[in-house]
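Posted in: Structural Biology > Protein-Ligand Complexes

Title: Requesting predicted complex, iron/sulfur cluster in pocket

I'd be grateful if someone could produce the C-alpha cells for the following input. Sequence and ligand are given below.
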Amino acid sequence: MRRCPYLEELVKDQRAFVRIYRFDCHVDHRSKLKYALRDSPPICVRNFEDCPLYQDEKRREDRTITRYTD
Ligand code: SF4
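-- Reply #1 --
Done. Output follows.
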C-alpha cells in the first residue's frame, strides 16, 4: 500500500453501513475523520502527492535540503 510519509496513524472502523477512517497528519498535527459508504480510504494511502499539505511540506523539506547541500 502506498502511504504518505507524513501519515502518523490510520484507523478504520465500521458502524452499521458506514466506514469511518480516522487519520492523523504530521503536517498540521490534526486528527481527521472520513466517512464513506463504500471502501474509500483517505488520500493519505492513495494519491497522497495530490494533497496540498503533502506538497507544501515536501517543498519545505526540499528547500531545506537544498540549503544544506549548496
Ligand atoms: S496525505 Fe496530506 S493529510 Fe494525509 S498525512 Fe499526508 S499530508 Fe497529511
